[in-house]
Amino acid sequence: MNSASVSVIVAVFNGEAFICDAIDSARKQTVAPLEIIVVDDGSTDRTVQLVQDEPGVTLIQQPNAGASAARNVAVARASGDWIGFLDADDLWLPHKLERQLALAAARPELEIVAGNHLPFLEPGTACPRWLNPQHLVEGAGCFMSSILLVRREVFSRVGLFNESLRFAEDFEWIARTRDAGVLMGSVQEIILHKRVHGTNTTHHLKGAQNTVAQTLLQIVRQRRDAASSP
Fold this sequence. Notes:
Elements: E1 6-12, H1 19-27, E2 35-41, H2 47-52, E3 57-62, H3 67-77, E4 82-85, E5 91-92, H4 96-106, E6 112-121, H5 135-138, E7 140-142, E8 149-151, H6 154-158, H7 169-179, E9 184-196, H8 198-202, H9 205-228
Parallel strand pairs: 1-2, 1-4, 2-3, 6-9
Antiparallel strand pairs: 4-8, 5-9, 6-7, 6-8
Helix pairs in contact: 7-9
């Protein structure tokens, strides 16, 4: 049996509609996490009150600074061997941590473990342009934050999330891990249900696309500069 411990980190902003379901999905893992840390990023709804009523959850409150800043605060506080990120509107399947830790035990060189996800539409939500309808049935692989299980020491080598980014910050961080030679594996089954709802289907999509494009350009420049250095 793998004895590795996991710290679960949930960054949330105005997530009263879904936060309790997210926490419950972490609590119901077949391999129990060491701790669940929720960072409230300046919510103005009932998020704080709801989280305070959740037993065994560590709540950290901060003024609104974005998901990157919220995750970074929790990473500094976490004490597990591994860190699992969970967005406040997503759901882990009960076997998520078990499957990922099993792969990590079988391949100890891995420092990040990902997996497949199945998006689902919140009632009343139309399928957005960016979502392949086939994924609603078959699922797909991904490297979004909610699916990642990361060895804690990776952050010492790669650094934390870029707090200047409000979109695609997980994409930019993954790019840095690859440049640093961090080894990543993936569980070939669905371990995350990704909720698609009215806010995340339209929320600053253009800004997110621009951030991805800018990040790609930055990575290309950095690699070019590194290759040309003596």
